[in-house]
Amino acid sequence: MIIGNKQSNGIDDAADQRLRFLVCGDRGMLIECDDLNATLRLFAAVKAAASAAESSACAPITTPTQSATGQSLHARPGSSPTFDADYPAGVSPNMKGIAARALRHADALSAITELIPAARTLFIRFNPLLTTRAELEVAVQELDTRVDVAHAAHAISIPVTYDGEDLAEVADMLGLSSEAVIARHCGTPWSVAFVGFAPGFAYLTGGDPCFDVPRRATPRLSVPAGAVGLAGTFSGVYPRPSSGGWQLIGHTDVPMWDDSAKVPALLQPGDTVRFAPVRPQTPIVSGSPASAGASASADFPTNAASPDIAASDTFQRNAASPSTSALIVLRPGILATFQDDGRNAANMGVTGSGAADPIAYHLANALVGNAPGTPAIELTNGGAMIQASGDTVVAVAGAPVDITVTGRDGGRPFAIGGQEAFLLRDGETMTIGAPTAGLRDYLAVMGGFDVPRMLGSASTDTMSGIGPKPLHAGQTVPIGTGSHAEPTDGRRTTDDNRHCDVGPGTRRPSAVSAGVAPREDWPSDLPSPGTTTTLEVTLGPRADWFTDAGLNTLLEQEWLVTAQSNRVGLRLSGEVPLERRDATELASEATVAGAVEVPTSGQPVIFLRDQPVTGGYPVVAVLTTASLAMAGQLPPGARVAFRVTATPARHHMAATSGSDPRLASQDDGAIASHEFAERTHEQATEASL
């Protein structure tokens, strides 16, 4: 949808702009602007309006609201909040207008949960239980975007050794010598436009006009920290080891991200950056010792590439925690990480992370009576062995696995036959086998794990290395004393609630504790190698970048989940690649968990929970929330079919086109993708009759 925005309040007509609203999943929208400056103005206006709306919804009108510049906006008692407010000196008229419009659309704007600006787009995530897409579009459209984007800007010099493995190829693309590329890269200052892709990854713009370099057709498996690259008109420095498709021209030893710093990211929006050449030393190339430890068998970074964020083998217990129980990891399996509901720090380039299958994760915590959001251990493909130090109540939920418990004396094992809470005594060992279907399980303990948090979450981000390290053999994990439901009927967990010696193959009785969820059978609908799982998607935001034949291929062809998959995403392989209508370079924009991104190769990638915050390949569709949870259980060798669900944008058009002519003006490409979805629904219905 393309809408013109023209203010008639006496403000300069330079505020005119065109906004294109694009569907981005069942709880998100992408707004395309004319250029980067327009995007940053829109971001500032929406951020200020959402803050004002949230304050008005949560507090009396006399409570100050916070503007985008950090100033308080007060309304006089008994006055109209829209037209009769007392503002501090220096607050611009457009800021007053933002506050007024925010109050008119408070319900819609207060439903915003996340904002991610990028090169030409602003992503807005919202709570669909609190507003509709149509209401939010109207609220955004009425904002005055003449907000000054204030920065505490700094000038930063970054020394670079120009030894990148793509330097010669970039020179050939631009028709220059390598020396000329270096001179131009250093000769013009760059500005930080926004931060995305990875924590501390700053997109630099405004360099020499010669730089307009396409990304690599296939991203590298591993790019070392400090690599300096080019993509489109941007330059940037990789802050951590990760995958990446930028053209590498050099490297720097200056860290872009410091966990111990008050502001971890070196570069902030508005900063000026100058690169300074230094004498070349040993080149950094993929597969060199500098990048050792990164996975050579996956297209996404693995835990081996993650830095030591939580460096101790035994986590330090909080001083206030009196618990003495712990779990000892004898064998972690392929990958064991701490996960919870994730982070909300995209403004720093930090992805959400969190449990890949949130349904199973929440069930595991409920089984032991933990409060929502309590950290649990996510196990990938089972194979774990855990020993108790002190008595504790545990539960495993997710993919069906065999669970056996062996006593301290090595006697006959107990068998756990479902998703249930049970008592693990001091010295007993729990063995978790490989799943018979699905891929991931969640181990929760009553009281939760006493693990460090970063940016409000204990989740391990396998792409950037934020959060606790993946678990390893010999690690001791203390158990906390988190909140859980209190007994309501006087029952207690005692020796009478369990057998001391039960024969092999017999289900061990659950520990009885009020407040825990009842036992559930293992799920029977999880995917397995060789079977096909249907995932529901909404088309967009870039479905119009693909031909009808390409969209048919997406929806009619089955796709294989390859072994080059992990928590960052699932790499799919199909016989026919997706055909694009628009082969131009896409400016970097927000990516979300569940996004189906299509690199130049035409083979899709489904992003999971550790996805980059921004990316540069078109997203043809986004999984629904329910299908995203199922995707977290897809093992390598499983097959995927996509099915289009009801399109929010089409429903939005039907509901609003008669009432607001601005909302009836759809972009031809967006309409085409939605009509394609409807034709697909009709064809599927006819085929089933």
Automatic annotation (TrEMBL):
Q: Which Pfam families match?
A: CT_A_B, CT_C_D
Domain of life of the organism encoding this protein: Bacteria
Q: Which UniProt keywords apply?
A: ATP-binding, Hydrolase, Nucleotide-binding
Region (Disordered) spans which residues? 279-299, 473-530
Residue ranges annotated as compositionally biased, kind Low complexity, are: 286-298
Q: Name one GO molecular function term.
A: hydrolase activity
In terms of PANTHER family, this protein maps to:
5-OXOPROLINASE SUBUNIT C (PTHR43309)
Per UniProt, residues of the Carboxyltransferase domain are 19-267, 347-656
Answer yes or no on keyword Cytoplasm. Answer: no
Q: What is this protein called?
A: Allophanate hydrolase subunit 2
Q: Which residues form the signal peptide?
A: none
Q: Which InterPro entries match?
A: CT_A_B (IPR003778), CT_C_D (IPR003833), Cyclophilin-like_dom_sf (IPR029000), PxpC (IPR052708)
The species this protein was found in? Bifidobacterium myosotis
Regions of compositional bias (Basic and acidic residues) in chain numbering:
486-501
Per the record's keyword annotation, is Transferase included, yes or no? no
